[in-house]
Amino acid sequence: MSPALDVDALLDDRGTRIIVCCGSGGVGKTTTAAALALRAAERGRHAVVITVDPARRLAQSLGLTELDNTPRRVPVDGGAAGDPPGSLHAMMLDMKRTFDEIVKAHADPERAAQILENPFYQSLSSSFSGTQEYMAMEKLGQLRRSDAWDLIVVDTPPSRSALDFLDAPKRLGRFLDGRLIRFLSTPSKTGAFRLLGAGFGLVTGVVAKVVGAQLLKDVQSFVTAFDAVFGGFQERADQTYRLLQAPGTAFVVVAVPEGDALREASYFVERLDAERMPLAGLVLNRTHRALAPRLSAARGTAAAEALEESGDHPLAASVLRLHAERVQTQARELRLRERFTTAHPGIGVVEVPARPEDVHDIDGLRGIGRSLARTEPADPL
């Protein structure tokens, strides 16, 4: 049996400054991140949660009409206990605005204006693969350097693969410093065209036909202007990556009891180990447990069939069939969990029971927090 993940101990540890919630898409990272931040605030931490969820579920759950690139104070009462001893802020990443901030901070006004107005940059900063993940790490670094909060909780982008959060920033950096970009920008560098001569002109002419002459011109102008910013761009990416490896950071891998999600979680755990990044444990969301575990699925089905044949107590027969399905679901989920824990012994696991409806307010997040801390009773049907 795997050890339990002690969420309250993690949140109460003042040495824990960053919690990163990772996992494949659709496993509940946003809700988990918000619930962790809320519970931390109610236990005395000054927490901020970053979401990159375009569905804006976090804002709704926190009772805010909207979130933007600036952390907003969340009005949270402590329930029956009164006002919480800590505080909670929340923000939703605006990757283009974050990218713009980097450019303005590390280029003179004239060069910054050239970059911001460049069509290739506008496409890169708003839709290029890997930009969202890089900007999430950039914003994490900004918040950590500000030292305005003693706990930052990160909801990673809703990527198909959990590994994208670690891989995409490096891919984006390699692209911006790659041979193709440097090759395309060469004609704009002083004297380069004269040195390379007509042969190079012939090659760039072919490239222009493939990618379009205007795009080629935009790329050349962008790289020329961006050279002054790029060194700081890469340096901060490396600094944030080291921050993720440092003491005080804790990764929480989020999954649901399904084969694909747990395989993705397993890959991520292995990657964290290879990169020497600190793993707190696994949150297994939307689990199902039978309320009468001694009644097997076979016996429940047989009893339901007997009632159906007699025509008596149709509601009881329906409940018995529901119970049988629940027992079968529980057995399947336990097998999947055991497969994960066998492959990764010693990793703490906490289960969050499935709920009859989505979380949409503070009380719902508070309930998820109690489940994470293993202080909530058995899940409802």
TrEMBL record:
GO terms for molecular function: ATP binding; ATP hydrolysis activity. Residues 16-286 form the ArsA/GET3 Anion-transporting ATPase-like domain. SUPFAM superfamilies: P-loop containing nucleoside triphosphate hydrolases (SSF52540). The keyword Nucleotide-binding applies. It holds the Pfam family ArsA_ATPase. Keywords: ATP-binding, Nucleotide-binding. This is Arsenite efflux ATP-binding protein ArsA. It comes from Actinorugispora endophytica.
